[in-house]
Amino acid sequence: MPVKTTSISLSTQGNADVHDITNQVTRSITQSGLEDGTATIFCPSSTSALTTIEYESGAISDLRRLFDEIVSSNREYAHNERWHDGNGHSHVRAALLGPSITIPFVDGQLTLGTWQQVIYVDFDNRSRQRKLVIQLIGE
Amino acid sequence: MPVKTTSISLSTQGNADVHDITNQVTRSITQSGLEDGTATIFCPSSTSALTTIEYESGAISDLRRLFDEIVSSNREYAHNERWHDGNGHSHVRAALLGPSITIPFVDGQLTLGTWQQVIYVDFDNRSRQRKLVIQLIGE
Amino acid sequence: MPVKTTSISLSTQGNADVHDITNQVTRSITQSGLEDGTATIFCPSSTSALTTIEYESGAISDLRRLFDEIVSSNREYAHNERWHDGNGHSHVRAALLGPSITIPFVDGQLTLGTWQQVIYVDFDNRSRQRKLVIQLIGE
C-alpha cells in the first residue's frame, strides 16, 4: 500500500479568503490511481486553515462573520505588539480552526456529503501564494 | 496492510443532538480484525461534526451553551436569507467544530482516555437519518 | 508499510498551559526509520487538545485570551455543579479545539510551515502528568 504525496498551489487574497479545493483533492486521488484510502490535507502555514462547509456565498459569509466576532481584527494583539505585522488575529483564527483535515475515499471518490465541500481559509492580512500538502495512503 | 471502510447509521434529533459513538467505532475495529492502526471517522454532512468529550450531561450541556452563545440560532444568517431552510447556524457550527477525527488504535483498542468518548453532534434544525464513515488503516 | 506507535510524556501546569511538541514528534519520525507517511498525534484526555501555531509568546497569549473570552473559567458550568471538580470550562475548550492532528511527513520531515509548530494545550485546572500518542503510518 503506497503513500502518495502531492501539493496544490493557490493564490489567495487574505482576510478570510475562502477557496473550494474539492476538485483539486479529487484530481489528486484520480491521478494517484488509488481506489480506497485516506486523504490527509494539510496547510503548512500558521495563518490559514481547513474545514468543510456547503460552499455557497451565504454560509461562507456567515462563517466569516463568526471569526470577525470572536477573533476581531480591530483590537490589540500581543503578537502585533511584538512583531508589528498586524496579523495577530490571523494566527488565533487559524489555530482555532486547525491545519489538517482527513477524508476517507472509496472507489476513487471522496466520501463527502452532497452539499459538502473542502475549503481552505486564508486568514492572513495580505495576498499570498500558498501551497497545500495532499497525502494519500491507500490501495 | 489493508484499508477497511465501514459506516454507522444514526437517527438524530437535530439542534445540537449529541451521540456517543465510541462503542460503534470500537466494534468496527473488532470486526475488522486489525490490531494496530488509525481510525478515521468522518461525517459526510455540512451541518454536523465530530469531537471527543467526557460524555456526561453536564459537559454536554456546557458544550451546547457555547454554540448557542457564539453561533446563536436566534439571529439573521445570510444562508437563511438565500435558502430559507433556517439552518444557517448549523453550517457555521459544523464548519467550526470540523467533520473529521483521527484516533490511533493499539491492540484492537482505541487510545482514548478514561473519561473520553467520541461524539457526533448534529447541529441541523430537524431530525435526520445520518451515516458516518469509519475507515481503518492498519495491520 | 508498517504502523509505528509511540508516546511522549509531558508535565503540564494546567490553565491553558501550552507546550511546543514539534521536536518530540520529529524525533519519533527519525527513530521510526520511516521516510514518507502520516503522523497522527492524539491526546487521550478530555481536558486538553492539539493544534498548530507560531510558537511565540504573543500568539500564545492571544490564543489563551480567546478561550478566556468565549469559554470563561469565571462562570457556572453544569459539569461543575454535578462533579465539583471545577474544570467544566476545560472540557468545553478541549472539545472545541479537538484531540487529534494529522500531519504528513516527507523525507523524514514534518511538512510544517516555517513559522508553524505543533502545540499541546492543557486546559485542565491543575498540573498533570500527560501522555500523548504518536502513530506513524508510512514507508
Please report which band the strand proportion of chain A falls in: under 5%, 5-15%, 15-25%, 25-35%, 35-45% or over 45%.
Answer: 35-45%
Q: How many strands in all of chain A?
A: 8
Provide a count of the helices of chain A.
4
In helices, the fraction of residues of chain A equals: 25-40%
Name the chain pair with the biggest interface and residue counts per chain.
A-B, 36 and 34 residues
Counting helices, strands and paired strands, the structural category of chain A is alpha+beta
**Uncertain runs of chain A:** none
- Mean pLDDT rating of chain A: 98
First-residue to last-residue Cα separation of chain A: 5 Å
**Secondary-structure element pattern of chain A, one letter each:** EEHEEHHHEEEE
Radius of gyration of chain A, rounded? 16 Å
What oligomeric assembly is this protein in?
homotrimer
Main sheet overview of chain A: 5 strands, antiparallel
Q: What does the overall shape of chain A look like?
A: elongated
What strand line-up does the widest sheet of chain A have?
Answer: 1-8-3-5-6
Provide structural commentary.
Three copies of one chain form a homotrimer. By secondary structure, chain A is an alpha+beta fold. In chain A, 29% of the residues lie in helices and 37% in strands. The first copy, chain A, contains four helices and eight strands, in the order E-E-H-E-E-H-H-H-E-E-E-E. In chain A, strands 1-8-3-5-6 form a five-stranded antiparallel sheet, with helices on one face. In chain A, strands 2-7-4 form a three-stranded antiparallel sheet. The radius of gyration of chain A is 16 Å and the shape is elongated. The model of chain A has no long low-confidence stretch (mean pLDDT 98). Chains in contact: A-B, A-C, B-C. The A-B interface holds A 1, 36-38, 51-54, 56-59, 61-63, 66, 69-70, 96-98, 101-104, 106, 111-113, 115-117, 119, 137-139 and B 1-3, 5, 38, 40, 42-46, 70-71, 77-83, 88-89, 91-92, 94-96, 98-100, 102, 133, 135, 137.
